[in-house]
Amino acid sequence: MTAQTHPSQNTDIGSIVERMQVMLADDLRATEALLVDRAKSPVDVIPDLSGYIVSAGGKRLRPMITLIAAKACGGSNAGTHALATAVEFIHTATLLHDDVVDDSDLRRGKKAAKNVWGNNASILVGDFLFARAFTLMVETGDLEILRILSNASSVIAEGEVRQLAAASRTDLPTEEYLAIIEAKTAALFEAAAEAGALSAGDTSRDMASALAAYGKNLGLAFQIVDDALDYGGTTSVIGKAVGDDFREGKSTLPVIIARRRGTADDHAFWDRVLNVETQTESDLAHAIHLIRSTGAAEATVAEAQAYADLAKAALRPLPDSEWRQALVDLADFCVSRVL
What is the pTM of this model? Predict the structure, then answer.
């Protein structure tokens, strides 16, 4: 797969999310209020822990996709707000669980919740948020939307287990890598977009399917970019902490490409360092060097751009509107993070 188009020349990449937050101000306020309200519990640790990670921010990208998809199909409503909240709860629950599985120390620039409340509390509060998400889905009274989001929850769990099974595998095929990220990341993007579209009311199946395809390809582009960012993206100046995937022995696309293009000595290096028991802290710098010197960083970004292009192409059945353009701009934003 190769990239075919480039971000719109009229798009100010740095302001895309901020502009969308203004466009969606009322919807996002309603969603934020639901996030606070539905995380309430007489068990103090639940609102404390869930509030800790929810208030840490993030761009609310997945709820925004739900809201914009509804707007592009006719308009948002209370049901859309409930679904956007459910999507964010599912995402937050997976973050809590992931940090335990991956033994991560930081999340959104703060101590991971497990390092404040412990592993058990993080897992159980994650379960609570999953349950809250299903309550919100049921309240919409739409069985098709419930099917879409409940299926996505199952697929996400399968993807996490699939990734666990592939840990430290040095010969991971690209196809298996893509299957993992399609399940653990793209499935929620896909469900967020499709559910949002259906919440608008009289959405045609063609439009809902188009938005599902958009969400799936956007999610693939987003995760591929995240994996590139773990090695500093394409620049020599690294603006964020890197190396978490490396230290966990994950074979992500930059590593797969660098290993495939490398020498026999490079293969031996990757075989050693993807085993967490035999890697050293100094190995990360050489890994970044190999990813850049083999062109794997650029090839990874090109793959992400190709999926972003597919996402934008999927929007063709939608009528022209500021909301359709917002979805196009969002795809450009996802890739721009690594450039």
Answer: 0.92
